[in-house]
Design goal:
Number of helices of chain A: 12
Order of helices and strands of chain A: HEEHHEEHEEHEHHHHEHEEEHEH
Radius of gyration of chain B: 19 Å
Helix content of chain B: 25-40%
Shape of chain B: elongated
Largest sheet of chain B: 6 strands, mixed
Number of strands of chain A: 12
Oligomer: heterodimer
Largest sheet of chain A: 9 strands, mixed
Strand content of chain A: 15-25%
Distance between the termini of chain A: 34 Å
Chain lengths: 337, 215
Amino acid sequence: MLGPKARVPVQATGEFSETVPVPTGTRDVLPEELALERGISLAILKVFADAGYREVATPSLEYEETMRIGDPRAAERAYHLTDSNGRILVARFDSTIPIARMAATTLAAAASPLRLCYLQSVLRPIEPKRGQSREYLQVGMELLGLDAPGGDAEAIKLACNVIEAAGIGDYRIAVGDSSLFGRLLDEAGLTADGAPRAREAVMYELVTRDLVGLERELDAAGLATAQRDELLGLAQARGGRELLDRAGAEGLSELAGLVEQAGVADRVIYDLGLIRSQTYYTGTVLEVYAAGFGSPLGGGGRYDELVGRFGRELSAFGFALNMDHICRAREIQGEAK
Amino acid sequence: MSAGDKLTIAVPRGALMSGSLELLESVGVDVAEVRENDRKLFFDEQGIITMRPSDVPTYVEHGAADVGIVGKDVLMEQFERDLYELLDLDFGECRLVVAKPKGAAAPNAHALPERIATSYTKTAERYFASTGRQAEVIEVKGSVELAAIAGLAEAIVDLTATGTTLRENGLEETEQIAVCTARLIANPAAYRLKAEAIDDLAARLRAAVGARTGS
């Protein structure tokens, strides 16, 4: 190696030596990283196995119409292919929908509750130049056939165990109720039938996390000041169990009791404005955040209607974590120590 | 994790900088050193980092800053980012407009789709699509007025405060797309992990903005 002094300034030619590229948003995983990631994955899968969860895998490709049953908007944005008969396939962008399909079809005879876990990659379209991955490894669980709030509490406790097994000590789980805001809008008279436009506009601002827009749309909807203030306050309410002493939050309040019994109350932040983009959630939703890392490690929630759409009435709760984010957050927290 | 958590605040350099610092100062943030030191970008003690305006959402989305101040025009252009928009800070008002050389022919005089030069390419594309018009959007990085004068495009989409630059270059506003003011944004992880500190800052800013506008 030449020392810095021996280096000669190089005139830019405007050309870089040619290499064979990989698609934007994908990358090779080299031995050191894979060894690290594998170690963490195995530790997580062991936590799932010890809790009675059995590992499954689903196809890399599904019929588009199958994935549409779960989440039409996301299915539309997924990578599409056609098979030799011209049927439209999509690359797996979500593991919950295929496992719901599995629970209703290939596992139809299996007794509930069903405890399943997985470690598999998903492919999602990305915005360019934002450091996003097109393909990443997801580790997660689905608990089928155990109703709220018991199933929710089991999943939250398990999420804590899994994150700690991954070597992340400083984290919080944000817990909300995806049905709460809609129910309060109903009570305020902004029903899906009566005021579809105003309701849609309000929900859009909530989903896109624009509180300025939310205030504007609530004003435009002509609600009474007290109702408007209540909804605005709710959308921003984050904190402890004391938040749940309000009309509509009874479900979360019951869950909070179980979370306390499970000994993980100090890990949970109740977040009444939390909404996730997946359209199949029907109740409790969660997102996992690690100190020092700007994006959620993952998330999940209750989806009591999805398995039914595939032909088996079964309540369900699941969450998935992004292994890249886990590795990165673990590294950041390791450095901070 | 409490109100004692220190926040890192992203402050845009350029047109919104002095208004941002004024507002932060009015709620008790020490900004003296930031004002005095024009070259420095990172003020650890004060918890302030400064950057070009269009980079504010990037730093906040990735969590390199917990909160930030940024124009609505930048947020509209970067609409797909995962951020919380907490508060309208009600200063730095500008308008995003379509402008053309004075006396330009009406758009239906052209057989081909109009060419629109702008640095707000996504906003321009969405705006023209939403109004049912086809437009060929050409990205330029600065001095957008030139594009319409030099014949690169028939019209431009750009931000204007007073309209002076447009007039001086012989352009006139033909449509208004949006009125844009400065906004307070937050990183989604910080929004939860530092909820108290963020709510406290937002409440103080809201009060300061209210006092200023007299509402």
